[in-house]
Amino acid sequence: MRARITNYRTESLVIGLLLMGAIGSPCSEVKPDCLGKVVKIDYHSPLTYDVVRIKLHGDNPALRFDELPNGFSNRGITLLNLIAMAFGVREEQIIGGPAWVRSTEFDVDARVDEEKSQEFKKLSRQAKGAMLRPILQERFHIELETGTKQISVYDLVVARGGPKLKIHSAADSVDPIHISAGNWIMPSMPISFLAIQLSGMINGIVCDQTGLLDKYDANLTFSSAELTPGAPASNASDFGPDLLTALKEQLGLQLVPTKQLIPVIVIKNVSRPLIE
Q1: Which residue range(s) make up the domain with 55?
Q2: What is the DSSP string of 46-61?
């Protein structure tokens, strides 16, 4: 069974969700370090945003996530992304709802007032994510419920011959993570980060089952031509091994398909927001 490679344009959003702590948290009902735990649906948050602006994203293809001292600013986010951030789950764990939930992109800015800024700074990223829940209810009139669903997932495991990864040393400098089509530079990388990046590429859930607990300095180079089927090769990154071959040859890891019953959030009702 071969994983299906998809067009890759969400690297900044994936990193943004990681910063918010919205994906990759453990779940007792499924394999560890794979999915977020689906808890009882609760739209309340002890601290709420005082200013929330929602606009249509427009034609600019760029996606951007900025975590601010008093809130956040996101460009090109979908309602599906917001639900995932609010409840700390993966997008694959959200089902139902009209097509625009996954396709319509918004620019969302949220801020707390100055007197709340110090309290906001002390919040965990999960708590900051939960502050989106009142926005979902008030602006999108959303109604959610929990359930389960069996889906195909991929286990990320160590390939025969062992891992080909360099353990990051505390003495080494940490350069910024760089993710682009066909070229991933990942200094001081936990394997859970790699699993999430692979999830976005194969349009499926990847569970870290490697047992590798350190942080690693890893580079992954593969053909970007497969990301846009039919497109002619135009630069060096268009040539080289496909993603799954590169994963095995360069990092000593591989994906193994399996099936898993996962907890999900079901969208029962939702409305488009009033656009400012």
Answers
A1: 15-146
A2: SS--SEEEEEE--S--
200 and 245 share one domain? yes
Mean pLDDT per 10-residue section of the chain, whose length is 276 residues: 44 45 38 59 91 89 79 91 90 92 95 94 89 96 93 92 91 73 86 87 86 92 63 50 94 93 92 88
29 and 138 together in one domain? yes
- What pLDDT does 202 receive? 82
* Whether residue 248 sits in one domain with residue 166: yes
Tell me, yes or no, whether 140 and 28 share the same domain: yes
Secondary structure class of 191 (helix, strand, coil): helix
Looking at the chain, list the stretches that DSSP marks H as alpha helix, in order from N- to C-terminal side: 11-20, 79-87, 100-103, 117-121, 125-130, 133-140, 191-202, 243-251
Domain boundary among 127, 146, 165: 146
- The pTM of the full predicted model, rounded to 2 decimals, is 0.66
Last-in-domain residue among 146, 163, 189: 146
How far from 109 is each of 126, 130, 234, 271, CA to CA, in Å? 18, 15, 37, 19
Has residue 2 been placed in a domain? no
Q: Across the strands, what pairs with 147?
A: 264
Q: Mind listing the pLDDT tens digit for each residue in 214-245? A: 999 999 999 876 544 344 444 444 567 999 99
Buried/exposed 69-101: b ≥16 CB within 10 Å, e otherwise: ebbbebbbbbbbbbbbbbbbbbbbbbeebeeeb
> Tens of pLDDT along 36-85?
666 678 888 889 999 999 999 987 766 777 788 999 988 899 999 999 98
In a domain, 9, yes or no: no
Burial 215-254 (b: 16+ CB within 10 A, else e): bbbbebebbbbbbeeeeeeeeebbebeebbebbbebbbbb
